[in-house]
Amino acid sequence: MSSPQRAAAERRDSVPYETVDLGVLVIGAGAAGARTAIELVEQGVDPADVLVVGKRQHGDAHTTWARGGINGALGTHDPEDDWTVHAADTIDEGHHVNDPQKVETVTRRMPALLRELDEWGMPYSRTPDGEIDQRYFGAQSFRRTAFAGDHTGESLLNTLVGRAQSLEIPYRENVFVTRLVEADGRILGAAGYDMDTGGFLLFEADTVVLAAGGYTSLYRRHSSRDDENTGDGPALAYQAGARLMDMEFVQFHPTGMVGARYGDEWDGRLVTEAVRGEGGRLYNADGERFMERYSPDQMELDARDVVARAIAREISEGRGTDAGGVFLDISHRDRSFIRERLPRMYERFADLGVEMATEAVEVAPTAHYGMGGVVVDAVGETDIGGLYAVGETMAGVHGANRLGGNSLAETIAFGQVAGEAIADRVRAGDPAADHASDVLHDRATLHFGSLQRLVDAEGRHDPAALFDELRAVLWKHAGILRDEETLAAGLDALASIRRRASDLDVGDPTSRSFEFAMNLGFALDVAEAVLRGATLRTESRGAHARTDYPDDDEAWRRNVVVSRDSVGGMHLTTRAVDEPSEEVQVALDAGFELDYHQLE
Predict the structure, then answer these.
(1) 184 and 81, same domain (yes or no)
(2) Which of 378, 401, 430 is the last residue of a domain?
(3) What is the pLDDT of residues 255-265, one digit of tens each?
(4) DSSP 8-state secondary structure symbol assigned to residue 590
(5) Which of 132, 242, 375, 404 is the most exposed place for a label (fewest CB within 10 A)?
(6) Computed from CA positions of residues 375, 381, 383, 386, in that sequence, does the dihedral angle turn out positive or negative?
(7) Is 541 annotated as catalytic?
């Protein structure tokens, strides 16, 4: 053995870890990750060469909290709807900074993919003649949101997990991936640890798929579980050298739970848009149906950014409730209708002592979805060869504001697209897929050494407390309304947190403090990208509202791209947006638009 080889072997022995050798590693076990893995195997990839890893138990992912529905132009009720109108609605809602090619990929594929899910056993709600039912959702020109009551995400994930299990796709639970390993612009694998045992793990993989969700849990009020959507996917990609885009665009859903009667654990939890899609009405504390002032044609079903800002204005001008919210009322519908169409919402509020058939619920905006994410090409591949990103981890589909019902659609469509592309790569055989095993293990050993030094560190700062402080900073300084002074103060506050994060009090890898320390490392980069992107974009567009630049600016029909420079600093540039296809432009020019009053 040569001296360099001996030195490398000694370094590996200094920090013990398990090595898992495979073809494709999928990080994230929600709908996007599951659908990608399913497509790989259905395209002929051996299940033994695929592994899906998740931070939680199998089937327990944020997808289950997407309740209202999934879009696809089936035309069940409105036969004049088609994929081009769906694309036009998506681009209009995204304020024309979407990637038109990615929009078309989703909208073209979704009708067939909805029917495929039906074949796999998805328990859709049905029309009287047995067709897949579809409902109105905000800013959609036609009824194109397919649904399973108000538990669509849960039913979707159960369907996908069942399909994956029938294909014998391997899955490993309670795995936290902490670093991607790349060399010379190509992915080599990923490092992490087992959250149950604390043991370090190295995944040696030809291809890695990031399907790890978004970043809205980095806000104080949010609609996610606290330990999900903490920015893992975008941060892993960015720290490995991939670019991010559109990070300043954070959607605040109009209707998150608020009020002492619900308790702190429910603060910010989503009240699905399906409540408004089924006719729910918004009232201020004075009993006024205030959307008549802001959007008399689309009312409560206008775009999410419009409704969220309207609610925020009502509250700021003193017409909100004592708890800082407004009222959402669907009591004009029959109890039987509510229980059939909105069963989970009805049960949740009934358990909290609220009868939706006779009284309103209190709501206020909550951070809900990050439109930004990793820059990918037409099939989901990032700047790093062999590294893909799908679902909420990727950027491009949603532009400045996501159309309701498109999140689940994106996970399914790009899961299929990425799966097809990776299967082609596997079949073709990639001569560059030599793992450069010594490089992989040496870099992993350095990373595990840094993690080992963090174990039982007795610093001055609690990672959970710093994480909560970061959440408060984003809520205060990069919330629904922003300006230059507020954003600058947010960057200063973030820098202070980053300095203190180098001196943490941390337990062993099975502890919550260790998990928070890992989350904090991701969150600092993602939060900085949000604040810097919002500072650079000197206009208001979609979910990004600058009070010092209240209008949109045609010169800003561009995307903000975030990259890591050679010394580890954050570098921002912009790039022009492509034009839509002729077919979609025709639909845009036609000016289709939902008329709320069709519901009445």
Answers:
(1) yes
(2) 430
(3) 999 877 788 78
(4) H
(5) 132
(6) positive
(7) no
